[in-house]
Amino acid sequence: MNSDNHTEGYTYKYPHPAVTTDCVVFGFDGKELKVLLIERGQDPYKGMWAFPGGFLRMDETAEECARRELKEETGLELTKVRELGTFSDITRDPRERVISIAFYSLARHSAVKGGDDAAKAKWWAIDDIPHLAFDHDYILRKAMKRIRQDIHFEPVGFDLLDEQFTIAELQRLYESILGVNFDRRNFYRNMLQTGVLEEVEEDETPRRAYYGKRKEMKRMDIDDLFVGSVAEVSEPCMAPVCDAAPFVAPRHMEEDKESKVSAADRIKRIHELLKSSPKESSAVFEEAASLPAPMMCADTAEPELEQGRPSGRKKKKLYRFNVEQYNRMKEDDNFRLEF
Questions:
Q1: Domain at 174, CATH number
Q2: Number of structural domains the chain divides into
Q3: What average pLDDT is seen over the chain?
Q4: Which of 46, 108, 287, 334 has the most CB atoms around its CB within 10 Å?
């Protein structure tokens, strides 16, 4: 059999449909679930929003096509996408008979830019998505249904959250995907029971930043701010402020006893305000600026500002996913999240 006859043996007279791929990419900005869309720059449906996608080349697989089109039209490069399904409605594309293989993926929220035949690329909040081109409204519903099924069998936060996160951030993610509100305590308990979360040790987290107009004062213990002053000019104290050396009083306080009494009242007032009402810090600092210099021990070094204590607000616990533990549970088919 010659080559021509061999070719004719595998050539059919039936019409062939075209094949395209579409990619549904979900992201999370810390508040709500979003979907990546492109504005079509060409007909059909020019100016309408749609999923990134395009025609399959002869030398690539469907998955390779989906990742290529995503990068060309949005600048987002993914190494893993999952097949969602095949969409073959006869009238889905006005150009010709086109069958589309749709994929979906989860990705961290990042900057995107329209390219190739896409005029724009943009992350859209789920509740704000406009009417989409082709049959992409139907594809979106299918993708949402799939991710809501997946969420019970795998921790979707692997791909959508930062490496370290709070339980509150994880709860907002799950609520935005499922469209429900969870009780905080129940959600916290259910997530810890999965066994795939581990608390981040305190020495692995960045130091908490201090706040306030005078950071150097906020970093010091309140009693350290007034070493010697309150003990000397107010009521007698049974124990000395400093045993190492005698007090050295400022000259203007030695010359004028009335000013010393006045200073005592004002220092006591500032001391009370700082301890009882941090919100009045601005008034406290203005009052402190007009005070005479407090008495200090002669050889007492300045307080170590770097060793201060943070504000009284409770520090939020940070968590991360234990990927190894999840992989072991997945191999044993032993991971399931129930709400």
A1: 1.10.10.10
A2: 3
A3: 77
A4: 287
Under DSSP, the state recorded for 44 is S
* Amino acid letter, 277: S
Q: What is the rounded distance in angstroms from the CA atom of residue 139 to the CA atom of residue 103?
A: 10
pTM over 0.90: no
Please count the other Cβ atoms lying within 10 Å of the Cβ belonging to residue 5.
Answer: 8
Is 143 found in the same domain as 282? no
The whole domain housing 95 covers 15-150
Number of H helices, E strands in the chain: 13, 11
Q: Residues of 219-229 as b/e, b for ≥16 C-beta within 10 angstroms?
A: bbeeeebbbbb
- Whether 183 and 322 map to the same domain: the answer is yes
Residue that is written with structure tokens 């070094």 in the block: 301
Residue 121 burial (CB < 10 Å; 0-12/13-18/19+)? buried
Interaxial angle between packed helices 136-150 and 167-178, expressed in degrees from 0 to 180 and rounded to the nearest 10:
130
- pLDDT confidence of residue 7: 53
CATH number at residue 83: 3.90.79.10
* Tally of CA atoms within 13 A in the half-sphere of 215 that contains its CB: 7
Cα distance between residue 253 and residue 245, in whole Å: 19
- Element containing residue 143 per DSSP (H, E): helix 136-150
Q: 268-279 pLDDT, tens per residue?
A: 766 666 665 555
Residue 66 is encoded by which pair of tokens? Answer: 């989906």
Residue type, 100: S
Q: Catalogue the E-assigned strands of the chain.
A: 18-28, 33-40, 49-50, 53-55, 82-87, 98-106, 118-125, 197-199, 247-248, 296-297, 319-321
Where do we find the tokens 């081109």? 133
Dihedral of the CA atoms 85, 86, 92, 93 (nearest 10)?
A: 110
